[in-house]
Design goal:
alpha/beta; globular; 10 strands; S-adenosyl-L-methionine; EC 2.1.1.221; single chain; two-stranded antiparallel sheet
Length: 296
């Protein structure tokens, strides 16, 4: 056998696939510990799962937004063809909101509870703030809207929503005590013995930005008392009965305040806002349970 003879080349060449590893990612959002400090590239299974979830989100964010815009455009085209009114566009809503005169009443969402919530519950708070923003910008008399104690954790969570800095919300990193006169503050808390009958002008009503599944019941009331801030609860018991516990989300409380400030009667506002799963109906008996701070 001739040793110099070359081995015949195979015609069945396998494609040269590139072996991708975790180090071939385009964006590395990293992970942060409870103190907000950057963690090294993770090694435990649990950390790796969280980290890869962040990576996938960052890498697919632009493409996902592009597909969402295309779907929305197609829905508008189909609606026009079927003579269906989809309401005002985002662009027209933004223009209208700039022309509206805001109410003299303000709402503050207090985000000083970051350390009491797990990541999933912080995401729920952000989602509810987004809902409040959407409700408020569609109102003819929107409330003044503030978010205080806007820390790094929530800032990181809300940054998933591109352009949040341009929302018609005033974000403050400090406490409401550093931003507003104490005599103009009013904490909405279900444990208060005071029942609200109307909302005052030139007053800022605080909603605790806390989703805790009732683990810290009464915390907002305790804070209001310690800080010497006026406090009160919504008159749920006076107007409606519900099949479930009277636990409302941040956006439910926000919308109830907004509707009443718009001039909607309490009973109508409550029945309009409360979800059907709560089984709300016109009050026929009196109950002492009126909590609404920590729904999920």
């Amino acid at each position: 056998m001739d040793e110099s003879a070359e081995e015949p080349k195979s015609d069945n060449k396998e494609p040269n696939f590139r072996q991708h590893t975790l180090f071939h990612i385009k964006v590395d959002p990293g992970l942060k510990d409870d103190n907000g400090d950057q963690l090294p590239r993770p090694f435990t299974k649990n950390q790796m799962r969280k980290w890869l979830k962040k990576v996938r989100w960052e890498n697919n964010k632009a493409e996902k937004r592009k597909k969402e815009k295309a779907r929305a455009k197609e829905r508008r085209r189909e609606a026009r063809a079927a003579n269906i009114d989809l309401g005002p566009s985002r662009k027209s809503l933004k223009k209208r909101s700039l022309e509206k005169s805001k109410s003299n009443t303000g709402i503050i969402i207090d985000l000083s509870f970051d350390k009491l919530m797990i990541e999933k519950d912080r995401y729920k708070v952000v989602k509810q703030i987004l809902r409040c923003y959407s409700i408020n910008r569609r109102s003819e008399t929107p409330l003044q809207f503030y978010v205080t104690s806007f820390g790094d954790k929530t800032k990181n969570d809300i940054s998933r929503h591109n352009g949040y800095e341009n929302w018609d919300i005033t974000f403050k990193e400090t406490s409401y005590l550093n931003e507003f006169p104490k005599e103009k503050l009013f904490y909405l808390t279900s444990e208060s013995e005071n029942v609200i009958e109307s909302f005052e002008e030139d007053t800022y009503y605080i909603i605790g930005g806390l989703v805790d599944h009732n683990q810290h019941k009464g915390l907002c009331h305790k804070i209001a008392v310690e800080q010497g801030i006026r406090h009160g609860q919504l008159p749920l018991n006076k107007y409606v009965n519900m099949k479930t516990r009277k636990v409302l989300t941040i956006d439910h409380v926000f919308e109830i305040v907004l509707r009443v400030c718009e001039g909607v009667p309490w009973k109508d506002a409550l029945l309009q806002v409360l979800p059907t799963r709560k089984g709300a109906h016109v009050c026929d008996t009196t109950s002492n349970d009126g909590s609404y701070e920590s729904d999920n």
